[in-house]
Design brief:
This protein is mainly beta and about 120 residues long. It has no helices and ten strands. The strands form two sheets. A six-stranded mixed beta sheet has the order 2-10-9-4-5-6, with no helix packed on it. The protein has a four-stranded antiparallel beta sheet with strand order 1-3-8-7, with no helix packed on it.
Length: about 120
């Protein structure tokens, strides 16, 4: 079982930036895809960005603004979020996505809250 600890969230004004971190336990981190997900108040959780091998994929809503990266040596993934918008508000989580990113491999961590004010 892999556990995730997300951090780096906070309150930011629209147009600002935040960098989220995801620390994962376990020795198989480098072998798996890693994704960032978010859940806005009253909405279903959605995938935001996925890193798989040498490729990355982004949800249309964040494309060009968010960048996912990872440090396999430290079992850590990052999400650099620029040009933040109020609609980016939500709790952000990381996990290993399955082929359909609606499903993930492990239990969710606590997440980190991101609040963007207009």
């Amino acid at each position: 079982q892999v556990q995730f600890v997300e951090s780096g969230g906070g309150l930011e004004q629209a147009g600002g930036s935040l960098r989220l971190s995801c620390a994962a336990s376990g020795s198989t981190f480098s072998q798996n895809s890693i994704g960032w997900f978010r859940q806005a108040p009253g909405k279903a959780r959605e995938w935001v960005a996925i890193s798989s091998g040498d490729s990355t994929n982004y949800a249309n809503s964040v494309k060009g603004r968010f960048t996912i990266s990872r440090d396999n040596a430290k079992n850590t993934a990052f999400l650099q979020m620029n040009s933040l918008q109020p609609e980016d508000t939500g709790v952000y989580y990381c996990n290993v996505p399955l082929r359909d990113p609606l499903f993930v491999l492990y239990a969710w961590g606590q997440g980190t809250q991101v609040t963007v004010s207009s």
